[in-house]
Amino acid sequence: MKIAYILNTYPQPSHSFIRRELQALERQGFAIDRIAMRPAEVELVDAGDRAEAARTHYVLRCGAVALASDLALQALHAPRGFAAALNLAWRCGTRGEVGRLRHMIYLAEAAHIARRCARSGARHAHAHFGTNAATVAMLCHAMGGPRYSFTVHGPEEFDAPRALSLPDKITRAAFTVAISSFGRSQLSRLVPHGTWARISVVHCGIEPDVFAQPAPMPPIGPDAPLCLVAIGRFVEQKGQMMLPGALRVALDRLQTDGSGAGGIHLTLIGDGPLRPALEAGIAEAGLTKHVTLTGWLDEAGVRDQLARAHGLIMPSFAEGLPMVVMEAMAAARPVIATYIAGTPELVEDGRTGWLVPAGDALALAKTMVEMAATPAATLDRMGKDARARVLARHDIDTEAAKLAFLIGGAADHRPLTQPPGPGSRTASDTAP
């Protein structure tokens, strides 16, 4: 079965979960046409990302003349559908900050994709994120293209759902995917109760074989500091600006409490617009010997850093359900994370890690101190519990099978039912 995946920017270093989902669907027997509006603006350091970029069709590279031609041809050959899509784009363009002009560009992109899908025989289109990729998928369907679905991750979609026309996108879609029960609850707020059955939970997934043999927990004590890793783009929502102040407080407390703990070292993996401010905060707090910034690493590099660490720290202000939390847990490492969005569905406070209130630097510092004083045997047990939990809930092939079931039903116009199997919403909510 041929399907189209519609994306805005693909691949990106922080979106490896999409690549894993695509490849898992291909193992399910789907042929997938990767369609993105544009390539990433950053250098792709991972070989897997570079391979995906070579397989992806980039719409905007076709140029304005080609897109205008596709728009005219679509209007000529399917005038009623084109008129419906034009009206929809115009109405959506009245909301939010994007405006009508941008929606006319989306309309041209949708016409290009509709014609591409007709040539390739794609029977369904799936978009990731409820932003412009889902808009293009919706307009493509309105003008006669295949039925569509889309995955909502958050947090951006939840910040301005009506400006993004999320209610329209959900009600017109064959089905909508949320990556957590929290996400499903937020989408359910936007549409009538009768639509809720078409909103399903399909988790982002990990590849268990990649984490088949987790490294032993490193020693910890007076001569072996607590090693923490933070992974993600340096942007406001990820909360990394909390870390210098919290780490400074934690180190000062360790020096005065006589616990015998050997200090803390933090490795920051990633990059982004807040890097200069973050570097300045690290220097101002006198932490240059206690913090390492690596930039973006490929997946093997991330796994290596997790193997060297005792755990992950994720001080986010807003999230969907972070992939890096899943990867750290699969590597048998406990997690310090904030009690927001879908994170508490995965991280169990006191069993697989620690949960702290978002924005509370003192709570973050206190938890780092507590973790630094925790024996390696206890951290090892927590890491093993974390690994068992994430493998039970986030195996990529199990989750892809759920998505494949939904796509197959949509393409065949079967009544929507919840995906079967151990990864279903009911079973995953009660997994160990």
UniProtKB/TrEMBL annotation:
Where do the segments described as Disordered lie? Answer: 412-432
A GO MF term: glycosyltransferase activity
Q: Which UniProt keywords apply?
A: Transferase
User: What Pfam family is a match, any one?
Assistant: Glyco_trans_1_4
Which superkingdom heads the taxonomic lineage of this protein's source?
Answer: Bacteria
Q: What is this protein called?
A: Glycosyltransferase involved in cell wall bisynthesis
Tell me which species this is from. Roseovarius nanhaiticus
